[in-house]
Structure prediction request, 276 residues.
Amino acid sequence: MVLDRSDMAQVQVIDSYDYKGLSFQLLSATSISAQHPTVSITAPQGTVILGGGAEVNWNGSGNMITGMFPSNNGTVWTVTSKDHEQPSPASIVAYCIVAQMKNKTPIPTGVYKIVSQTSNVAAHPTQQVNLPGDFSLVGGGARANYRGQGSLLFASYPTPGMDGWVGSSKDHFKSDPASITVWAIGLEQSFLRNANMLSNLTSNETTSAIASHPHHTIVIPEFHMTGGGARVNWNGLGNLLTASFPQDRQTWVARGKDHLQPDPSTITTYAVGFRT
Prediction:
């Protein structure tokens, strides 16, 4: 199914699924090829964004993610990337998971919340943002706020207690201190408890083998994905995110790469959602 809209790139419905009181859709949209590609998805009317990700279709020297984040009260998901020092145009794919009530009405006002926080300016900025105590995490995002050569994401992932989100970026070879803005998306616990869903909300993480271009896929049977993330565990010059996205309702894919100079690393993949 394709949604034709005049205000954005063509949006593809990849997957649709229901779980108890909620109905989900996994959407995607692809940018044109550019050195600094970007594309946004506007959630269908009556839905809000629970989580999302990005995939850069790079070749050559490489093009890396700089942002994947919600805006406009959770109705727009935007992804951005850039080449770095060497021209390497690419397209970028935005993915987001939207939800509404199973009866096709909007999720009630007040039970859905997005919080964000921006770090101080640093060469390798990192920030954690936490939800209020009566909310549970379903997804999140991050954006590097660079102005010069570029600050590139290497992490955007849930906290272990599923109460917040962490984002990290870095300049690479060329100095460009920047801040990073991080978003956490949550649903009210009492809403989930009343729908008999709270005890089924969970997160999972696994880590890849070490490689110059680490990649890892987490697959959780009988899962209803709401969000996910990735963290590249680099130790040297740096290894950067090129993909972190939901492939379907039970699969999250993460990829990274070193850039211009070797730095083999592992990558940790995270999935958040409801397990039946």
